[in-house]
Prior knowledge:
The chain is mainly alpha-helical. The protein has one domain. 69% of the residues lie in helices and 3% in strands. It has a two-stranded antiparallel ribbon with strand order 1-2. Helix 2 packs antiparallel against helix 3 and helix 3 runs parallel beside helix 5. The longest helix has 32 residues, at 138-169.
Amino acid sequence: xxxxxxxxxxxxxxxxxxxxxxxxxxxxxxxxxxxxxxxxxxxxxxxxxxxxxxxxxxxxxxxxxxxxxxxxxxxxxxxxxxxxxxxxxxxxxxxxxxxxxxxxxxxxxxxxxxxxxxxxxxxxxxxxxxxxxxxxxxxxxxxxxxxxxxxxxxxxxxxxxxxxxxxxxxxxx
Length: 173
């Protein structure tokens, strides 16, 4: 379900922790309002930000091999996003409820944007100056593929409904 927001403070907290760029000025919103993504999205964003903070705190205090930290961080983020977040959304595409599939499609889009922002953030936070080049998360492509699967699933459900209607129309009343 889309995420309901009841106050401006709650809205500001969600925008602050997630990679979400609001379409409207917050002062123009009336509360309660509904954000397009489900509650899963900002909760995952919080966990990812906490993970980043903790790994870099650990790296600064305990570890001298910064290139290894950067590589491990990238692999860990990919594993988390691909295997846990994206796969759980893909698993839910078997639903028969078009509204749920549409919500999953919207979530895929927001997670794709988050991955792109995360790539920039990790690149800027890199602890190793010897590592060059952009950070590329496999998860970005995985979320793009998930969006295509969700769109395909929506068309399957719509086509199924159309087939049912055609079958009903051809019924000998």
